[in-house]
Amino acid sequence: MAPNFPSWVTLAFSALTSLLIYFFIKFYNHRRFHRNVPAPPHSFLWGHLKLVGDTMARFPPDTHWQIIYTAIAQKYDLPGAWYLDLWPAGPPHLIVTDPDLAHQFTVLKNLPKHPVGNLAGANGAAWKAAHNMVAPAFSTSHQRNMAGMMAEEVMVFRSTLQKKAATGEVFKIEQVLHNLVLNTIARSIFEESLDAQMKEIPMLATFYEVCDLNIILIRSFNPIAKLFARRKQNELNRKLETQLGDMIRVRFEKVQRDDIDISQKRGLCIMDLILREHLLEVQKAQRAPLDPKFMYMAATQVRTILLAGSGTTTGTLSFAYALLSLHPEVLQKLRLEHDNVFCPGTEETYALLQQDLNRLNGLEYTTNVIKEVLRLYPIGNSARGSDGAEFITYQGRQLPIKGHVVTGMQHAMHYDNKIFPHASKFDPDRFSRDEIPRNAWRPFERGPRACIGQTMAMEEMKVTLLLTVRDFDFECSGLQPTKQRVGWTDLDTVLGDRAFQRWKFEAGPRDGMPMTVKPPNRSG
């Protein structure tokens, strides 16, 4: 006689059986897809998860994904487009390391941002409206006019370095640079200094906590840790929104009190541009000027700009000082250009810069140094969705992209000897030679979704190097060199683990890049 199970048991068993059948069908289809596509060695059981795990084990903890993918691409001599099967841990990827193919889906066929790994992941009309609203504040002409303000902030940073040089103390230059950059960005947003270089700012302290918790949410596989991190982050996000809201209200009151003209976009700071668009809508709809919907949108915009704007400049300058400490011949050429384009002496250079901001155009070698640092240490990559497209064409072959994350891997391009000859060499002069393919250098990405703040970042980095490198010799502290781990760079034999960027929101310096500074040795 057959056992008489309760109906709920039968239903549960049927549901479980259906789920298992669905899982195995999906599992089989995922794995079968990767049999005949360009990809590294593939396991039917593990996909590429084991390969990625084994590759990660060669590097220090928290190493950024772009380094892992470059190691895989180079080890297996993969073509300019290849697949990575991370299911079920993550969506399948099409990794693009060919500059022209990257140009195809970022410029010619601007695929939308994929929600995976994107902070500014809005698309369509929402992205276009937000972009157009603040774009005037990031124009080349506006940023050149901001260079004088940037120089003021850099001189405060320089005074901090002078104090560090006097004591000989070891300090984390990433943090000191972060304070510089965030204060500069805050002045670009509100036209007011936070004085972040001289004192702790509660809003920024909350901001840092939110960032740190986000790393747990991204990297941890512990559901309990994620739950507590999410609850704490939600609490801090509400606190941050309140703090930013107070700053937005202060700016709004100043605009009204001082009768600041915001009828035209030209010359307005970022917050005034945001207020301008909103006040035009308010006048038409006769709504309250600072309603909750607007405050949430404005706070989100400010938070995104603070986050996206600070990482690039902070990380690039940290690595710039590290690489200059290893290459005295480059440092010497840099100092000579600053003497020639401006004048000997930093105080005199600062005064001359304030009189003629366009002299920055003459810093060609300085620009090349920054570009070379960004080539070796790009801060990340762009993940795109398929936008309903079925295929992308590469070398006459149609590669399926539906359901995939399409990722342009700048790091792998930048370390490819076929694209950048002697790619592992720190050689700023390569940008003065006609040897780099048109679409190959892309640390800010390209096309409509390129980093809106790239001009601001480049200007601030030029000003920072101009007003510091002649006054100090920088030296990395506490280095623990290791054996060479990969064929495409040997910097770990000097910098140790710090040769490989850590993963936070973007790819950045490890350990805060501890350094010491001292007066320069002019004999070099």
TrEMBL record:
Cofactor(s), names only, from the UniProt record: heme
Keywords, in A-Z order: Heme, Iron, Membrane, Metal-binding, Transmembrane, Transmembrane helix
Transmembrane segments: 6-25, 305-324
One Pfam family recorded for the sequence: p450
SUPFAM superfamilies, alphabetized: Cytochrome P450
Gene Ontology molecular functions: heme binding; iron ion binding; monooxygenase activity; oxidoreductase activity, acting on paired donors, with incorporation or reduction of molecular oxygen
Residues holding heme: C451
Domain of life: Eukaryota
Family: Belongs to the cytochrome P450 family.
This protein's name: Cytochrome P450
